[in-house]
Input
Amino acid sequence: MKQTSIILFAVFIVFSIGFAQQPVPLSERAYQDREILYELQEPPSHAFRITHDYTERREGAKHYFNVVRAGSKVSDPESIDLDSGENLKLETLSGKQVKERKLPITDSIKDDTEVVVTYLARSVAKGATVRLRLKETYADAKSYYLDGDELVWDRTFGRLRNTVVLPAGWRLTALGPPGVVQTLPDGRVSVYVVNPRNDEVRVYLRARRRAAR
Output
């Protein structure tokens, strides 16, 4: 029994040394492109603040193009380089302006499409990535509005993980599809919805102001 234990221990040591000498099979560092946050403003504004991350992997890329969904209007965009913490230069252009400047966008756009263009601090080197955090305020009266004394959010989500945060002082009254509801430390209510599909999922919720205490 003692001899067997010694042999097993020796095998373990050899295996551990061999494993430690092997290169770790990681092709790139961690990234998070599948999650998006919507923070609803007061309903009469039809506005919501969006925060999402993006990892640019294309060698030589100098721009990131965020195409605004048709029907929404964008304002107050921010773009942050998560590697350095630097606020990057950006501007909001029409699809026509993007075409006139011959910017290297690959998305299909119309002349009246809004595009938020981020100028990267450096071109993406071979084998490297640039991590970005985008923040924008959208206004869309068709997907976020008041119906009587309730607010309504009716929008499709294409990302895997989606969080909608209600304005302060509002409580959830209806939700479809299923989601995880919780109260944040600041008192606001958040709704977390997972979209496991390869296409978009429609998220419909309603909320009402809490009664004054």
User: Anything to note?
Assistant: The domain at 35-209 is CATH 2.60.40.1730 (Immunoglobulin-like). The CA atoms of residues 93 and 99 lie 10 Å apart. Residues 1-31 have pLDDT under 50 and may be disordered.
